[in-house]
Amino acid sequence: MRIGMLGAGTIAQAIARHAIRHGHEVVLSNSRGPGSLAPLVEELGTLASAGTPAEATAADLVVLAVGWPQIRDVAARLPHLDGTVVIDATNQFEALPPHPRIADLGDLTGSEYVASLLPGARVVKAFNSLFAQYIAPDPRHEAGRQVLFLAGDDTDAKNTVIGLTSAFGFAPVDLGSLREGGRLMQLGGPLSGLHALKQD
Ligand SMILES: NC(=O)c1ccc[n+]([C@@H]2O[C@H](COP(=O)([O-])OP(=O)(O)OC[C@H]3O[C@@H](n4cnc5c(N)ncnc54)[C@H](OP(=O)(O)O)[C@@H]3O)[C@@H](O)[C@H]2O)c1
Predict the structure, then answer these.
(1) Is any atom of ligand 1 closer than 6 Å to the C-beta of 192?
(2) Which of 2, 17, 103, 193 has a CA positioned 20 to 30 A from the CA of residue 97?
(3) Does residue 67 line the site of ligand 1, with CB under 6 A?
């Protein structure tokens, strides 16, 4: 698979490393241009490259891993994502801890809001509920595999994400729709920051 990364920070890099370890191509992007990513691309090896955010979306699957305040701006610059599977790894922090401010989206869940900004995309919420230190390492532990909650409205898209993340070694758990499952796993939900292992 060719996987495009919107963002090249902590979470994008953690997912990119899993993808590369499993033979996928990764295109990273950030706000400062592909040139700024040259050292990271060199470190990640020949399966990695850098592009603009728009170039990163010309992929089989896209990961959205930018800060919440940047999402609207990122989305506005992208071409129409016709059926592209987008993993939404974001959390709706308007301001980060230690003085966190969580976006008030009214009735919408975070990923419903993200999906509204990416018409045509098939959005699957995943990775957001885990702290980075539970995403980056090998998710296969002696006591079991790291549980990865996900939610989405498109079954095929979810199956793509389930297949990919199972291959990485995670134990994906489908929580249902962006509305119902998304609410459980987003900031403030009971599964946000819950780190569990699943025994096989
Ligand atoms: N860190 C965690 O433990 C964790 C866990 C789960 C989920 N999350 C969520 O995942 C998302 C990313 O978190 P992170 O910790 O990876 O953040 P991060 O390390 O600060 O990385 C953010 C990335 O977004 C890029 N970016 C900013 N504006 C952009 C734009 N307009 N176009 C393209 N890229 C842009 C930044 O590039 P520049 O540096 O060039 O601006 C940077 O590479 C957040 O929504 C966060 O809430 C974080």
Answers:
(1) no
(2) 17
(3) yes
CA of 143 to the centre of ligand 1 (A): 30
Parallel, antiparallel, or unpaired: how do β-strands 140-141 and 171-174 relate?
unpaired
For a ligand 1 pocket test, name from 17, 31, 114, 192 the mutation site with the most ligand atoms within 8 angstroms of its C-beta: 31
Count of CB atoms situated within 10 Å of the CB of 145: 21
Q: Are 160 and 138 in contact (CB under 8 A)?
A: no
Has residue 200 got a pLDDT over 90?
no
pLDDT in tens, 33-56: 999 999 999 999 999 999 999 999
Helix (H) or strand (E) holding 47: none
- Per the CB < 8 A criterion, the answer to whether 128 and 186 are in contact is yes
pLDDT at residue 137, rounded to an integer? 97
Average pLDDT score over the chain: 97
> How many whole angstroms from 162 Cα to the centroid of ligand 1?
23
Mean pLDDT of 114-119: 98
Question: Would you say 188 and 154 are in contact if contact means Cβ atoms under 8 Å apart?
Answer: no
Which pLDDT does position 13 carry in this prediction? 98
